[in-house]
């Protein structure tokens, strides 16, 4: 993991919690980096499926289908004009 070049203040209770999460060969920076990465992955995964089963999902699907049809029509128009 990266090297630390900044200092941050934490309360003694936070330090104790970091100590409990820290592996034998881990620095505090390593622990914090691991925790931040886990949270980032969790945040990313949270959005998947959020619209399934909602009224919004049907609307989004309808808009997507309409956009697909518009794109197909535009491609057909371009293809037809190239043939002419």
TrEMBL record:
Species, as recorded: Halorientalis regularis
A family per Pfam: VAPB_antitox
Top-rank taxon: Archaea
Stated name of the protein: Uncharacterized ACR, COG1753
Keywords per UniProt: Toxin-antitoxin system
InterPro entries, per the entry: Put_antitoxin
Residues covered by region (Disordered): 1-23
Lineage: Archaea, Methanobacteriati, Methanobacteriota, Stenosarchaea group, Halobacteria
């Amino acid at each position: 993991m990266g090297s630390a070049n900044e200092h941050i203040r934490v309360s003694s209770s936070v330090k104790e919690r970091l100590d409990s999460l820290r592996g034998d060969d881990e620095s505090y920076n390593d622990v914090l980096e691991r925790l931040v990465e886990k949270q980032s992955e969790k945040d990313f995964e949270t959005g998947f499926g959020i619209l399934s089963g909602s009224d919004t999902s049907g609307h989004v699907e309808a808009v997507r289908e309409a956009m697909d049809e518009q794109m197909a029509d535009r491609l057909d128009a371009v293809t037809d004009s190239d043939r002419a």
